[in-house]
């Protein structure tokens, strides 16, 4: 089961990078949630929520808002994929060029909870102070 869960999340991560709404939608449950730290720089800059509820909200962020904010040179360096049953944890560093031209680089930890082979909940952790410095100066 752990290997299967890990594969589901690895595939989903590739799908996120496509910014294809249909593909992204196919990896989430309808009632999925994505929780990031309150007041994180991305949510503040985009005027969005740090707690996205429902597949449509998550898909809109990944397909439309993310590429509008992180405009080019997006690179993900994975440091670890850990799976236990239907829970998968990812450690990574993301770098990119922001819409304002600034360089972005931050470390993340994601906890994915699956249900029926689909992503049901994502908890995202990052250095919010560092993110604010890079986004807002």
TrEMBL record:
Residues 9-121 form the SnoaL-like domain. It holds the Pfam family SnoaL_2. It comes from the Bacteria. InterPro entries: NTF2-like_dom_sf, SnoaL-like. This is Ketosteroid isomerase-like protein. It comes from Kibdelosporangium banguiense. The lineage of its organism: Bacteria, Bacillati, Actinomycetota, Actinomycetes, Pseudonocardiales.
């Amino acid at each position: 089961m752990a290997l299967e869960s890990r594969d589901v999340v690895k595939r989903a991560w590739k799908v996120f990078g496509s910014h294809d709404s249909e593909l992204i939608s196919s990896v989430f449950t309808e009632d999925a949630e994505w929780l990031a730290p309150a007041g994180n720089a991305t949510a503040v800059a985009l005027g969005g929520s740090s707690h996205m509820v429902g597949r449509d909200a998550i898909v809109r962020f990944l397909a439309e808002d993310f590429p509008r904010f992180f405009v080019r040179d997006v690179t993900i360096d994975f440091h670890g994929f850990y799976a236990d049953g239907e829970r998968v944890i990812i450690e990574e560093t993301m770098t990119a060029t922001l819409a304002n031209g600034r360089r972005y680089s931050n470390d993340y930890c994601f906890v994915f909870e699956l249900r029926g082979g689909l992503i049901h909940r994502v908890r995202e952790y990052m250095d919010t102070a560092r993110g604010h410095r890079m986004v807002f100066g």
